[in-house]
């Protein structure tokens, strides 16, 4: 072979190779999403959340919700999906699972007494003697005396207080006192044994919530009769060992019992509130007692 013939052969080979070079079809946007060039052709594919149409170029959204990937609710989006949870649940970090939301851990004030968590919800519980109010959170006292759900006899008087009740026995006046009404005992001035004793003892009852804010006016005492030249002194005669109370005189004829320190229940406090009458014109000094029984509830409501 001559040198000229050899050069022509190389030239033909070069011409054949150049004319058979691969065309990169991906440069022309033949695929909607992903394109992979291959020798003499190309291949289309789709991003996650899409599927290739039968014609091989365009992509259609996949409705992942048909596979039920979510624990609760599924909302299909373009190329993906979103899970959501029912009320009382929260989505976990995997984005598909729902776990119970412990509402009771949010705040100690969610329920007035006690909060019990339940799947997707919570329940407020009240102590004995109370029922759950209409708002499903607060507690309301059950008046056992009105409902008849008590153990008092016909001789006793039912007295309701916050969270409970008590049965009051018929009045029994200690000697030398005599009964003048269903709640009052008197000591006759003609009786020598009544000397230096309060003229009368009036029995009263009231209830008080545990831990009530202070100071608080809780009871009023007043003279019912005014004599010329007389003045009155009001004081706590007995029962105030813890110094939770004091008397504040509000006028010449009246005074108010003040709660000065928080008091916790359940507890029963008996105070003798004394009204001393002094008349220097006739040289008279006497007194009368209100025996006040206070039923302090076990709870602050």
From TrEMBL:
<feature type="domain" description="EGF-like">
    <location>
        <begin position="100"/>
        <end position="140"/>
    </location>
</feature>
<dbReference type="InterPro" id="IPR052080">
    <property type="entry name" value="vWF_C/EGF_Fibrillin"/>
</dbReference>
<dbReference type="Pfam" id="PF12662">
    <property type="entry name" value="cEGF"/>
</dbReference>
<feature type="domain" description="EGF-like">
    <location>
        <begin position="22"/>
        <end position="60"/>
    </location>
</feature>
<dbReference type="Pfam" id="PF22914">
    <property type="entry name" value="Fibulin_C"/>
</dbReference>
<keyword id="KW-0677">Repeat</keyword>
<feature type="domain" description="EGF-like">
    <location>
        <begin position="61"/>
        <end position="99"/>
    </location>
</feature>
<dbReference type="Pfam" id="PF07645">
    <property type="entry name" value="EGF_CA"/>
</dbReference>
<comment type="similarity">
    <text>Belongs to the fibulin family.</text>
</comment>
<dbReference type="InterPro" id="IPR001881">
    <property type="entry name" value="EGF-like_Ca-bd_dom"/>
</dbReference>
<keyword id="KW-0325">Glycoprotein</keyword>
<keyword id="KW-0272">Extracellular matrix</keyword>
<feature type="signal peptide">
    <location>
        <begin position="1"/>
        <end position="21"/>
    </location>
</feature>
<dbReference type="InterPro" id="IPR000742">
    <property type="entry name" value="EGF"/>
</dbReference>
<dbReference type="InterPro" id="IPR009030">
    <property type="entry name" value="Growth_fac_rcpt_cys_sf"/>
</dbReference>
<keyword id="KW-0106">Calcium</keyword>
<dbReference type="InterPro" id="IPR055088">
    <property type="entry name" value="Fibulin_C"/>
</dbReference>
<dbReference type="GO" id="GO:0005509">
    <property type="term" value="F:calcium ion binding"/>
</dbReference>
<dbReference type="InterPro" id="IPR049883">
    <property type="entry name" value="NOTCH1_EGF-like"/>
</dbReference>
<dbReference type="InterPro" id="IPR018097">
    <property type="entry name" value="EGF_Ca-bd_CS"/>
</dbReference>
<dbReference type="InterPro" id="IPR026823">
    <property type="entry name" value="cEGF"/>
</dbReference>
<protein>
    <submittedName>
        <fullName>(spotted green pufferfish) hypothetical protein</fullName>
    </submittedName>
</protein>
<keyword id="KW-0964">Secreted</keyword>
<keyword id="KW-0732">Signal</keyword>
<keyword id="KW-0245">EGF-like domain</keyword>
<dbReference type="InterPro" id="IPR000152">
    <property type="entry name" value="EGF-type_Asp/Asn_hydroxyl_site"/>
</dbReference>
<keyword id="KW-1015">Disulfide bond</keyword>
């Amino acid at each position: 072979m001559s040198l000229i013939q050899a050069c022509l052969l190389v030239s033909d080979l070069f011409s054949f190779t150049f004319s058979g070079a691969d065309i990169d079809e991906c440069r022309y946007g033949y695929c909607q999403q992903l394109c992979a060039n291959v020798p003499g052709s190309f291949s289309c594919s789709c991003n996650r959340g899409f599927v290739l149409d039968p014609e091989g170029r365009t992509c259609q959204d996949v409705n992942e919700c048909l596979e039920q990937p979510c624990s609760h609710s599924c909302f299909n989006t373009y190329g993906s999906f979103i899970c959501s949870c029912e009320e009382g649940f929260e989505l976990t970090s995997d984005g598909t699972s729902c776990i119970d939301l412990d509402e009771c851990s949010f705040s100690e004030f969610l329920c007035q007494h006690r909060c019990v968590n339940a799947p997707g919800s919570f329940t407020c519980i009240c102590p004995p003697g109370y029922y759950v109010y209409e708002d499903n959170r607060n507690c309301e006292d059950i008046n056992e005396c009105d409902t008849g759900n008590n153990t008092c006899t016909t001789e006793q008087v039912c007295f309701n207080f916050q969270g409970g009740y008590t049965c009051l026995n018929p009045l029994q006046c200690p000697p030398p006192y005599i009964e003048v009404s269903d709640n009052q005992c008197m000591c006759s001035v003609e009786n020598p044994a009544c000397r230096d004793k309060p003229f009368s003892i009036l029995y009263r009852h009231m209830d008080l919530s545990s831990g009530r804010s202070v100071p608080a006016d809780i009871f009023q005492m007043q003279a019912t009769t005014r004599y010329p030249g007389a003045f009155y002194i009001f004081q706590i005669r007995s029962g105030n060992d813890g110094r939770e109370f004091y008397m504040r005189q509000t006028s010449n004829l009246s005074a108010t019992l003040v709660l000065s320190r928080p008091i916790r229940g359940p507890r029963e406090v008996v105070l003798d509130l004394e009204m001393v009458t002094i008349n220097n014109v006739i040289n008279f000094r006497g007194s009368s007692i209100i025996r006040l029984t206070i039923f302090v509830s076990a709870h602050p409501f």
